[in-house]
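Observation: inputs received (chain + zinc ion).
Thought: call the complex predictor directly.
Action: predict_structure
Action Input:
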Amino acid sequence: MILRDLLLEKSNPMITLGNKLLKYEPSMYDDLKKWLDGLRLTGKAPRGMKDEFANIQFLQKQVDMIEKFPKMTPDDNFNIGSVFSWWDKETIQKIVDKLSKVEGETDTLKIGTITFTNKSTINFKKFQQHSNYIAGELKKLKGFHKKALKGGLKIKFVKKDECKSKAKYKGDKDELYIRPDRMEKGDGYASLIYVVLHELGHRFERKVKSYNNVPYTTKYSKTQSFDGDEAFAELFAISHWKKDYPEYKKQIAEFTKMVK
Ligand SMILES: [Zn+2]
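Observation:
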């Protein structure tokens, strides 16, 4: 090891911690969580680091699993140790160099009363863009649409493994899951902001009030789902852009009278 490396190691706690983890034991579980917290786990793999990046994401998955299932302990999970056993100090150096989080780049943003989380593959810049855009649009909501924001809103950008459809409203967590990779461009039907309004419709039903016999509109309004009443969610969204949906004028009028 040359002097420069020694100095670098001394000055960067992420390297010290990473090197310690090379001899991973379950007692180091908290150190592992701390180390992973300091790394960027979303976006694209840095050039030439596809394997390491996938392995780091794998480690995070193992941690998520231990956190999710209270009966599972770090002792049950020897997968973590095996990843570290493939690595050496050089790997740690490379990972810390290329994947340390830049200061200020978090995966959580709070804008007004809305908390955004990024667990998808979009990078921080895109995450920030999407969050600002959604927060700006939701600020414009009025009347019954605005009521759906009650008590603060949580929006999480997720990957396929957490959400098979474009989006969903997780009632038990009171959280909107959005797949940014599945959105149509612009602000029309099935766009990012449209989908947010649709999911807010489900939230409205759960947090404010639900209704029976909501009229059908779009093809999607006739589908069955676990999220709630799709006919309601679709009308909740299209009634926000009523001029764009003249074909549903009658249903929108009926719906607005019912909900407000
Ligand atoms: Zn829905």
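Thought: report the result.
Final Answer: The chain has a mean pLDDT of 91. Strands lie at 108-111, 114-118, 153-157, 167-170, 175-178.
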